Amino acid sequence: MLSLARSIQKSWGKTLKLPKSKFPPRVAPQDWDKYSQRCTDTLYDWQNKTRPAENTFVLHDGPPYANGTLHVGHALNKILKDIIVRIQLGRGKRVQFVPGWDCHGLPIELKALDSMASNGLIDKSKPILPSVIRAEARKLAKETVDMQLEKFRKFGVMADWGNRWTTMDKSFEKRQLSLFHEMVENGLIYRRFKPVYWSPSTGTALAEAELEYMDNHVSNAALVKFPLVDIPSHLASDPLLQGEKLSAVIWTTTPWTIPANGAIAVNEALEYSIVKTDSHGLLLVAQSRLEYLENELKDDITVIIPTILGSELAGKTTYRSLFKGPDAEPQPIIAADFVTAGSGSGLVHCAPGHGMEDYEACLAHGIPVFAPVNERGEFTDQALPSDPSWLSGHPVLTRGTNAVLKYLRVNGHLLSEHEYEHKYPYDWRSKKPIIIRATEQWFADVSSIRDLAVKALEGVRFVPESGKQRLENFVKNRSEWCISRQRAWGVPIPALYNVETGEAVLTKDSVGHIMSVIDNRGIDSWWTDAADEPAWIPPSLQETGTAYRRGTDTMDVWFDSGTSWSGIGASADGYPADVYIEGTDQHRGWFQSSLLTFVAHQRAANKSPVRSPFRDLITHGFTLDEQGRKMSKSLGNVISPTAIMEGTILPPVQRKGKKQSETTHDALGPDALRMWVASSDYTHDVVIGEQVLRTVHTSLTKYRMTFKLLLGSLSDFHPDRVIPYEQLQKIDRIALMHLYNLVTSSQKAFDSFEFYKAVNAANRWANLEFSAFYMETIKDRLYTLKADSTSRRAAQTTLFHIYSYLQEVLGPITPLLVEETWEHTPEAIKTQIEHPLQRVTSIPPSEWQNPALENDYQDLMAARSAINSAQEKGRNEKQIGSSLQSFVHIALPEGTESSALHRYLDELPDIFVVSSVTISTGESIPEVIEKSEWHHVEEFELNGQVGKVYVYPPQDEKCHRCWRYVVPKTEDKSLCGRCEDVIQEFDDKLEEAVSTNY
């Protein structure tokens, strides 16, 4: 028995308490679903059943569009939402996060048409029944929602997936129509013939939020002269003008709008001149634009009348239209504030059917709206009634523009033409230029609720703060909202039209009646029922004997999604949601439509004060590649979230023990995607690429190894053996101070939605304060001391606190990793603490926050850095390998006897990871240093004074168990006294165990 015990005893390695954990260095892809399920669906169900309903946090999902596969922009958005929700879960809230999808609109309709055409089901050149389009669009939208839902879940997003909503749900459409009904009742919906953004490529009106601007659009600009008919009397009597033909000069980047010209505008405060040219007669132009005119005409000009105020011209001058024929009534020159002398000629051609400002200016003077352009963006016969063949059927942006310029040139009205590069609006779906075109459209009155909407934003927290000004500006600069679209796939605008006159009927009673029919027959019946189906006509209209037809316009998709707050219900203080978070483009889209519809609803209900639908409004940027370019398929720089999780975006690696030819991709998992999101300052555009993901992978690997080390070190720890704070060693208290700073700074960053600051703090802590400092200092007592020694238990106590709080810090960011750590947590610990993702986070004990320890730490680090530098010199000269192969002497100046180095003297060997540390004050140094075969010295600063560290060879022998050089050379033994005690205890316990077994 004793011989057996002695043989085991000689295996000193078995007496070391090295970390033991089965926590893997990397998570296997086959385990992703297991951990994801636990930390998403299971966790959401748990909190929904156990957390009190009166303490609910609501994050309302801005619905992604159900069209196409997910990209990293989707991942950025959904993961940010999930992080916010998980933080609030950690604050003890019940969270409500119900995902939604925007399912109506043109892109899905076009995709449906393409799908049916490619399958030979339709001929796109022929009319197609709306019911056919709607059925295919609904099918495609549902398939896309199902596909996107599953991919979102792969990101580790915790949400109420089972109750997800879409804008094509019957219940959603019913609430949307109810709000529309409410707005009709309150006079906020009206129909008007006026200019709107029109997309010839998709044949529908657009909202401003559906535009994107191309910076390098090229237009054919022109200088055009309009013959004046009447001029002010004092000019008409001027001898210099007698018998001369005088023309007003305009400059335009849209010559195709000249057939719809209704007026010419001047600025009353500007000064104008009449000049004579050799080739073009007398011309009226702004005085400040004479040099520009001369350069453009390549002609000498002579000033005839130097100064005429715009106020003298406005209302007293008329001119002849260039396209309406000689018998047309002369048209007026009017005043408008938007006319400037900064470009062009200082006179502006106004086409009220093709310009928003033109419309407003002409409306004030009773000038009718005229827009001779059809829904395909082609001229109609009315563009040039006297000879329609010139223009009719030509697309206005291409052949139509050329035809107009040719007509002007042939008739002597074109002064010059040139290409002009400028910013121009495009249809964000077809990526083709739009036009402004007057049509009959339905509008929501924004002007009457605009002030209320701006006031509702006063109580909102914006992240970043600049978002408030941006959203306010969009609302303030808007007077109405075009809500009608000329498509089949959407919620119908429930209007009826007099078959004979075309007059629209949209009243409280008519909309209410139509809603009840929709409720009974289904929304598709609006399109499928016979045209003369009487069920849709309210009794009050049926009694008149007049025939009515149902309208074909659908509602703007922004109106659809903008009413989604109606599915939440406002909280006690009036806010439906605590947080809205979407991309910066939503200031003119979903944020604005949600605000306007909610304010309209509150005004109808006489609510006071009026609230916004969100308490906090957060915006994030777009995703860019590492060259700062926006991601697009054409550039080939699009990155799939799946590729990131599977690691295929990074080069393959060779695993240890594998052949040179055997490589594999290092799967990064959902947490890598999440770590990228959390570590980005999302208030700006966010960069992603191989280098960024390498950094993310490095951070995740560090956390995995940290948890593996913590779990291994706590494998024999029980929470009921926690050492009180006052009994911890000084270095343990410094570690807890660092932990306190990490936790509180992370919580502060979480509260301000600055997640990247929490990640930065955690990365810094993991690499410097924990790994490079604390773990290095405690390895000796953690691994070599008696299992139940106070010193070792103090280190484990500290590690236990670190483990618990690190789980809480990383829980919102890397929930799968934290879930996995819980699976590997020792049972003794599991029975004493809550699941990390179910805990209510707390601030660490205040006693851990000790500024004096921070000062001590800085002094210790200054000395440690100097020691490391001196040791590096020894390594370079092949004098030492391990840092334990060195003794250290610290020489401090007079007056530093109370320094941290003195007070921590008994812990300095652990802190510096050396075998011995001595300190002296003054100039003299121990003689042993001078006599040693080598030594290295480095200086460091201590409280404004200079200290020195000396690194020299150990003066004792190496202990073959703990490897410290602490065995006196006078003693012929292999172990130090401390290790002998541990071995003896181990031997005694082994003998006792063997005796018991025998």
UniProtKB/TrEMBL annotation:
SUPFAM superfamilies named in the record: Anticodon-binding domain of a subclass of class I aminoacyl-tRNA synthetases, Nucleotidylyl transferase, ValRS/IleRS/LeuRS editing domain
Pfam families assigned: Anticodon_1, tRNA-synt_1
Stored InterPro entries: aa-tRNA-synth_I_CS, aa-tRNA-synth_Ia, Anticodon_Ile_BEm, Ile-tRNA-ligase, Ile-tRNA-ligase_type1, Ile-tRNA_ligase, M/V/L/I-tRNA-synth_anticd-bd, Rossmann-like_a/b/a_fold
EC number in record: 6.1.1.5
Domain (Aminoacyl-tRNA synthetase class Ia): residue spans on this chain: 43-687
Subcellular location: Mitochondrion
UniProt GO cellular component terms: mitochondrion
Swiss-Prot/TrEMBL catalytic activity: tRNA(Ile) + L-isoleucine + ATP = L-isoleucyl-tRNA(Ile) + AMP + diphosphate
Family: Belongs to the class-I aminoacyl-tRNA synthetase family.
Entry keyword set: Aminoacyl-tRNA synthetase, ATP-binding, Ligase, Nucleotide-binding, Protein biosynthesis
Enzyme class: ligase
GO biological process, alphabetically ordered: isoleucyl-tRNA aminoacylation; mitochondrial translation
Record protein name field: Isoleucine--tRNA ligase, mitochondrial
Protein's UniProt keywords contain Protein biosynthesis: yes
Cited PANTHER family: ISOLEUCINE--TRNA LIGASE, MITOCHONDRIAL, SOLEUCYL-TRNA SYNTHETASE
Organism listed in the record: Aspergillus sclerotialis
HAMAP family on file: Ile_tRNA_synth_type1
Molecular function as annotated in GO: aminoacyl-tRNA deacylase activity; ATP binding; isoleucine-tRNA ligase activity; tRNA binding
tRNA-binding found in the keyword field: no
Domain Methionyl/Valyl/Leucyl/Isoleucyl-tRNA synthetase anticodon-binding: residue ranges: 732-887
